[in-house]
Amino acid sequence: MMAKKLTSGAALVLTVFALSSCGNTIRGVGQDAANTVNATQDAGRTVEGAAVR
């Protein structure tokens, strides 16, 4: 009976760690996408500024 509780607890802890890792990865992908958009906009402004001169 004790082994079953210990196994269930270990499975719960591993599940929580796995889900928190996924959350961090998704957040990182979102930040990368935002950085890509910002870099693209900055490059567009640079090109526009060079064309105006």
From TrEMBL:
Record bears the keyword Signal: yes
Source taxon at top rank: Bacteria
Keywords: Signal
Signal peptide annotation: 1-20
Protein name, as recorded: Entericidin EcnAB
Lineage of the species this protein comes from: Bacteria, Pseudomonadati, Pseudomonadota, Alphaproteobacteria, Hyphomicrobiales
